[in-house]
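pasting for the record
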Amino acid sequence: MKITFVEAVKSGFLKFRVFKGTSSRPEYWYFVLFTLLLTIVLGTVEAIIWPPVQTEDLMEALQQPTPLSNVAALVLLVPSLAVTSRRIRDAGWSGKWLLTLLLPVIPFVFGAVGAISYLESVASPSVEELVGLISYFVPAVLLAIVVQIFLLVLCIRPTKTQEQGNKYAS
C-alpha cells in the first residue's frame, strides 16, 4: 500500500497517542519532511514579523522572540515521538529505545552543576574562563549526537515481518 505525503501527516497527527503498532518508512520520513518544512516556513515568517536585531550582545541576539516555532515544537513533540516509536517497532526493535533520548540529560546536569559551582567560586571570570566552561557540556553534546545517530540507524532499517522475527509486527 502506497502512502502519500498528506496521508502520512494526517496519520501522524491522528495516531499521536499510539506508541504501539508500526509505521512504514514512507510514513515516518514524510512526517519528518513535514516537520522540517514547517520549521523552515515558521522560521521565515518569524524573521519577517520579528526581524533580527543587529547587536554585538550575544544574550540579546538569543532572546529574539520565536513564539510560532515554540508552539509548533510543542505541538509536534508527541506525534513525532509516537511515529518514531512505531517506526522503530516496524524495524524489529522496542519503542522503548526512545528513552535513550534522555541519556544526555545526565551529563548536562553534571556540567551545569560544575559550571555553576565554578562561577560561584570566581569573583569575575574572564572571557577565556567562560569559554572554558563550554568543556563542561561537551560530554552531553557528544552523547546527544551518538543517541541521534543510533535512533537514525534504527529508523533507516528495513521493515521486518513476523516471519523474520519481528515480535512487534501485527
